[in-house]
Amino acid sequence: MKFEGALKTELDRLKNNYVITVTDKAQNNILFTCKFYYIQIVKEELSRPGQITYQPSNISEASINDSIVRFSANKGIKVPGNMLDIPLIYWIPKMHKNPTKQRYIAASHSCSTKPLSKKITFCLKLIQQTHTNYCKHISRTRKINPMWIVDNSIEVLQKIKESNKNKTNNVRTYDFSTLYTSIPHKKLK
After folding, report:
1. pLDDT tens digit string along 131-178?
2. Cα–Cα distance list, 65 to 52, 60, 62 (Å)
3. Pairing verdict, β 26-34 and 101-107
4. Which of 8-37 are b and which e, b meaning 16 or more Cβ less than 10 Å from the residue's Cβ?
5. Residue 19: phi, psi to the nearest 5?
6. φ, ψ for residue 27 (rounded to 5)?
7. CB atoms within 10 A of CB 80
């Protein structure tokens, strides 16, 4: 589709001045955010006091990718030639919060770490399944359920319903706003 004249001029103005994003928890809704404000919010996240996840670097994108490709190859993982992007950080607005907040995402659909990430995810899911089976065994033999990992909210509701047979009086939920960027790496590991 080719845009011409006033329409093209207006679309170019929008692209120059605004970032168009999806809106968190509002499927099919988009939001126009001032580009200057958008960049300011990303900078604040990256330079927040005490934040150690993101550090400035003078290493080129090509050098980073070469390092990732070599590391992956050393582990027997091939990185396809069309997957040589590094992750970008961006945010989407959480308009359902008062005051509004941001959901930060570091990702790329063609990131050089994706093949490695897939392998790690497979391994972690295998560990989780082994732990789940172990917990099911304990639950059957000792009538204690030590499993606290759930896959979705339906499972949570089922567990609450089951626990209400035992007259649960108090159920609380908690949300982490910056879980991954706030936990110190040493404690996370």
Report:
1. 999 999 998 999 888 887 777 777 777 777 776 666 666 666 666 665
2. 22, 9, 5
3. unpaired
4. eeeeeeeeeebbebebbeeeeeebebeeee
5. -105, 130
6. -55, 140
7. 11
CA distance 108 to 88: 6
**Number of other CB atoms surrounding residue 90 within 10 Å:** 15
Residue 115, both tokens:
């093949």
pLDDT at 28: 85
Confidence of residue 67 (pLDDT cuts 50, 70, 90): very high
Q: E strands along the chain, which residues?
A: 18-23, 26-34, 88-94, 101-107
What is the rounded CA–CA span in Å between residue 57 and residue 122?
30
Q: Are 181 and 104 in contact (CB under 8 A)?
A: yes
Q: Is the pLDDT of residue 182 over 70?
A: no
Spatial separation of the C-alpha atoms in residues 99 and 21, rounded to whole Å: 18
CB 92 within 8 A of CB 21: yes
**Residue 129 burial (CB count, 10 A):** 10
Spatial contact of 132 and 72, defined as CB atoms under 8 Å apart: no
Provide long-range contacts, Cβ within 8 A and 24+ apart, for 28-32.
Answer: 31/93, 31/95
Residue 46 near residue 54 (C-beta atoms within 8 A): yes
With a threshold of 0.70, does the pTM exceed it?
no
